[in-house]
Amino acid sequence: MEPPEQLSQVQLTARNLRGVAHPLRVRMLTVLRTEGPATATTLARRLNQNTGATSYHLRQLAEYGFIVEAPSRGGRRERWWQAAHVNTVVPDDSVLAGDDGLGIAYLQALGRVWSDAMTTAIDATASLSPEWRDAQDFGDYVLTLTPAEAEELSAEIHRLLRRRNSAPEPAGSPLPEGAARVAFQFQLFPTGADRHVSHPTESECER
Asked: Would the pTM of this model clear 0.70, i.e. be above it?
């Protein structure tokens, strides 16, 4: 039996957001995308959860189309699951501003997952080879941008990453010599008091 084809991305909507706006579901989906198919038991062990919790959240992810059943391995009767998409498109303004708060809950879940990933990487730094310690990078820049300039910068970064991006290799596939799967995270947001500054438009200034 051939594994189901994985689509490139899924667009979050007011409906399917209900299926993923939870920290554990975001973590589980991330593991399935980066490490390949898994069962409720292997995910529970990987994420330090009980099998009942991972089984429930897998059913929710499947109901909303984020994961699909994968071919069983070695005749085992336990259900295997795999991600249905390579990545997720963050919801647009109308979804983020919804009264149900699910858009913000999803972003909060992402923030926790990304923060945990960075902390884990920092803790593992001493065990890296000298080459990977040199290649690893943590940094930030404080820029002065208009909203239009901020959008343009994000678009440039995404274009660069898409040129570097390739289809994920199946779990367990050998990597090229010296290569590793690398996570690149970036966030762009206004800082401090600037979050609350609303500059008047030209028409407002003329009143």
From this structure: yes
